[in-house]
Amino acid sequence: MQFHGSHILSVEQFGLTDLSVLFQNAAKLEPVARGELACNVLDGALLGNLFFEPSTRTRMSFDAAFCRLGGRVCDTTGFQFSSMAKGESNHDASRVISGYVDIMVVRHPQMGSVKEFADASLVPVINAGDGPGEHPSQALLDLYTMLKELKRDLTTINGLRVAMVGDLRFGRTVHSLAKLLSLFKGIHFHLVSPAELRMPADIVDFLRARGHTVKETTDLIAGVANCEVIYATRIQEERFESVDEAQRFKGSYAINRAFFDHYCDPKAILMHPLPRDNRSESCELNNDLNNHSQLAIFRQTDNGIVVRMAMFALVMGMQDQIDASLRPVGFKKKLIAV
Amino acid sequence: MQFHGSHILSVEQFGLTDLSVLFQNAAKLEPVARGELACNVLDGALLGNLFFEPSTRTRMSFDAAFCRLGGRVCDTTGFQFSSMAKGESNHDASRVISGYVDIMVVRHPQMGSVKEFADASLVPVINAGDGPGEHPSQALLDLYTMLKELKRDLTTINGLRVAMVGDLRFGRTVHSLAKLLSLFKGIHFHLVSPAELRMPADIVDFLRARGHTVKETTDLIAGVANCEVIYATRIQEERFESVDEAQRFKGSYAINRAFFDHYCDPKAILMHPLPRDNRSESCELNNDLNNHSQLAIFRQTDNGIVVRMAMFALVMGMQDQIDASLRPVGFKKKLIAV
Amino acid sequence: MQFHGSHILSVEQFGLTDLSVLFQNAAKLEPVARGELACNVLDGALLGNLFFEPSTRTRMSFDAAFCRLGGRVCDTTGFQFSSMAKGESNHDASRVISGYVDIMVVRHPQMGSVKEFADASLVPVINAGDGPGEHPSQALLDLYTMLKELKRDLTTINGLRVAMVGDLRFGRTVHSLAKLLSLFKGIHFHLVSPAELRMPADIVDFLRARGHTVKETTDLIAGVANCEVIYATRIQEERFESVDEAQRFKGSYAINRAFFDHYCDPKAILMHPLPRDNRSESCELNNDLNNHSQLAIFRQTDNGIVVRMAMFALVMGMQDQIDASLRPVGFKKKLIAV
Questions:
Q1: Chain B nearest CA to C86, separation (Å)
Q2: Which residue among A182, A335, B120, B249 has its CA within the 20 to 30 Å range from the CA of A143?
Q3: Per-residue pLDDT reduced to its tens digit, B230-254
Q4: CA distance B181 to B143
């Protein structure tokens, strides 16, 4: 794909070459994300960061990524675009805001809505989640994290054994990630979920048609065995017929330190799109794992910044300017020892 | 008027010389608004962007305009100023915030309230709408748009034939615009509205006293005939006795492509303060006009940025620095072909 | 204390030397806060400004302070962190955001919660109020204001006579301020409150144990007599058994111009943490004092900016760079004559 000036709406736009370009730039930007170097390739650029549903975390991640490159951000501050309540179309909202800024990030609860924004926009649009649809930057940062944690690259990730655990039916994260991993060869997918929450059949069929191995199971112990990556997701109790039903599943799929030590490959990494449900009984990845070396969930959110920085830099056509723009940061960042 | 250090509260502050200065600077800033040139005359300056009622669009327009000049923005993020719920006066809120920033933009639902903010502020205040009162920057961008679309200037706009259509009673936009147009000579106002929604008599009397022609009608076809500008507004159904009553008016005043082709001057421009009500039956300017060359509504919102940029630059005393501060932008903006 | 890289959670962290360093830097930054000089020691730095309860004023103060030093700010925009509603812990929220930014400011309704944020954060955390707990920057700006208004310094403030008036039971502001003043010698505390709203006994005992004089009274006239500082607070009617009960107290502790002229030292300064309740009958400091030279409440909020700027600069390790970074501001600020 041609990054410069393009919308980023779906993981399906990405081929291996695109991933290579994206991840090389992300790696280059890591010291900038950590506040160790400054980079101003987006000096003077303006982001319209439009979130039409609640998401502090993801909104701040895009916001921080754009600021780290020297740009400025105009945020929406409510969940509802006020003029839309008066009957305004996505077309009008998008065309108007696209005349104010240089690039837009859009999250919207309706599937397909971000495409409508893109169709009406004068500037590139990045999909930050359109309801049950796509959320491409999450899948990209997930893959980036796997490569980095496992010390693999795009040519050596073939044959990966990955367990996806939890609510595989409604979670757009695992759908996008599965599609992205299908670009490689011989991936072993262990899909661990209650029968009611299985991965949609069309995605399973697609993975098998591409030559990957898919094992579906309701048994967590069997599912995680020998996996290099265990990707946990939140059981979304609000989708169940009754809370009691949901509670039973929660019990089955909670991973704590004892479980990890007994049943998982000690070199396996634990991932999660976050937020975790940290309440007792429902915690997918227990708090007793917080200081465990294999818990990659916070390195995963850290990686979200650099992957989004790279997306911005590429879409704004600044790929060739990154190296020359790196400079010492003015302030002296001192991390807290934790 | 003296722009530097002044509050901008009403269109009545503006004379022809002021408009000339404002619009010349707005025109000069167009490449900056488009992200083609950078301008940092407000480097180090801080805007307090205070919106006490919902308005994503206008808030973002002021926000973007200030950022485009190199400034930084502190936004209010809710519709209610939390301390005001505890009994704080506009005086206190304004004086406190004015000690934090270099200029304020204020929108507030109560008429006269922005004047209260101005009276207590240490720094200039720009009125972004005080309920049914004034919204001067909207009228200014509307006039700027008319001149640009019609290739006229402040000396050749005399004699303009403009139709104002829809809810002329409650819309502060058409009130402010009518007052602003009264500065010129021999304007022909065609006021098209239901009898219940006529332009207030004091404004009509004022326009006639200034020597302008005012024709009031309920008939859209008669109203738009031979007009150079057709300024549509949303029928505000919430003001009517019954929804059925409102529906009838909506039907009468919807302009679509077929209507335009049959009844309007082909060189007429279609304007609207936005948001349009894009729902079928109620759309003042139908979606089938979206790609029509005479539909100026999005160029109108684009113009809002440069008019607000010019207001900021002038009120902050930077008029003479604009030329010298223009510089190439770092990033490479690439517009989407639409 | 070591400012660089430290959390600022409580006034109890501060000794006299720390106050001296903080206030010297605050004084140096006054022209920057007023927009007369620019300072970019935090160029490239990113603040996560997280407010989990309503507070436009304090949020904007931290926001403006960080921007004035050249930094950029990512704000939370709602009162509820959306992922927390799904069961996320303070630990997770803090660790994630701390990977996005270089420093965090946190306000949270639960006492002790900001400490939880600090414990999980990779970057320094400044407590902006944890429910009934601490709000250190408020006490620091209050002390800074007293020194400046009275033309005293940290060595000559000993023996100060200060009246604290109103709701001394629930107001965290007066608790923190009393603790901070206890660092000096021979302070005379006049605690004026209804019996039901007395200062907590442990704080009174602490002050006396440190050798200070504490006089508790319900009588405003006796309480303010001969005081150099009168620190009024809002009577929080929502805490009372009945509104009528609260109303009686409000009447007793309202200070207007006539009261000041009759009963207060003419050189006394009037302070208040704001917001005032400006409604008639309940106004702790009456609006008729607004132009009174001794009313220091707005200079107090102005001082909040410089004290917070100094906190940021010190915690980010930039103390030695401030002088060299000061430069003329680009724009020409012109204050409104009021």
A1: 22
A2: A335
A3: 999 987 766 667 777 777 776 668 8
A4: 8
User: What does the pLDDT read at residue C226?
Assistant: 97
- Rounded-to-integer distance, Cα B42 and Cα B317, Å: 10
Q: What is the 3-state secondary structure (H, E, C) of A302-318?
A: HHHHHHHHHHHHHHCCC
Q: How far apart are alpha carbons A253 and A268 in whole angstroms?
A: 17
pLDDT grade for B338, boundaries at 50, 70 and 90: very low
Mean pLDDT of chain A: 91
Q: What sign does the dihedral A129-A133-A137-A142 (CA atoms) show?
A: positive
Evaluate whether A267 touches A293 at the Cβ level (below 8 Å). Answer: no
Say what the ipTM of the complex is: 0.94
CB proximity under 8 Å: B 133-192 to C: none
Residues A152 and A237 placed together within one structural domain of the fold: yes
Mean pLDDT in residue range A288-306: 97
Here the tokens at position A140 are: 């990209």
Distance from CA of A152 to the nearest CA of C (A): 23
Q: Say which residue the tokens 């940061």 belong to.
A: A329
pLDDT by residue (tens digit) across A159-174? 999 999 999 988 889 9
Domain co-membership, B201 together with B75: no
| Residue A310 and residue A249 share a domain | no
Q: Let me know if residue B100 belongs to a domain.
A: yes
Contacts of A326 in chain B (CB under 8 A): none
CA B37 to chain centre: 24
Q: Is residue A54 part of a domain?
A: yes
HEC states along B172-215?
HHHHHHHHHHCCCCCCEEEEECCHHHCCCHHHHHHHHHCCCEEE
User: Nearest-CA distance from C202 to chain B in Å?
Assistant: 29
Show residues of chain C in contact with A275, CB under 8 Å.
83-84, 86-88, 92-93
Cβ distance C122 to A330 less than 8 Å, yes or no, reads no
Maximal C-alpha separation, chain C: 58
Do B45 and B122 belong to one domain? yes
A266 and A146 share one domain: yes
**Contact: A56, C48; criterion CB under 8 Å:** no
- Do B321 and B268 lie in one domain? The reply is no
pTM to 2 decimal places: 0.95
**Alpha helix segments (H runs only) across chain C:** 16-28, 30-33, 56-68, 90-98, 113-120, 136-150, 172-181, 201-209, 220-224, 243-252, 257-263, 297-315, 322-325
Q: Do A151 and A270 lie in a common domain? A: yes
- On whether residue A336 sits in a domain, the answer given is no
Find the helix or strand (DSSP H, E) in which B96 lies.
Answer: helix B90-98
Query: Does some domain include residue C2?
Result: no
Site from C47, C63, C76, C86 to mutate, A interface, most A CB atoms within 10 angstroms: C86
From A122, which residue of chain B is nearest by alpha-carbon distance?
Answer: B336
Measured CA to CA, the distance from residue C264 to residue B189 in angstroms comes to 63
Q: Which of B41, B92, B97 sits opposite C330 (nearest CB)?
A: B41
Alpha helix (H) residue ranges in chain A: 16-28, 30-33, 56-68, 90-98, 113-120, 136-149, 172-181, 201-209, 220-224, 243-252, 257-263, 297-315, 322-325
Q: Kindly list the distances between the CA atom of residue B20 and the CA atoms of B144, B153, B308, C117, in Å, as whole numbers in the listed order.
A: 10, 9, 14, 54
Q: Give the total number of structural domains in chain A.
A: 2
How many CB atoms lie under 10 A from the CB of residue B201?
A: 8
Instruction: Kindly determine whether residue C87 and residue A275, on different chains, have CB atoms separated by under 8 Å.
Output: yes
- For residues B123 and B146, membership in a common domain is answered with no
B123 CB within 8 Å of a chain C CB? yes
Residue A291 is predicted with a pLDDT of 94
Place of tokens 């930094």: C71
Structural domain containing residue A258: 137-298
Give tens-digit pLDDT for C264-277: 999 999 999 998 88
Mean pLDDT lowest among A6-15, A103-112, B79-88, B284-293: B79-88
Q: Is residue B183 within 8 Å of B158, Cβ to Cβ?
A: no
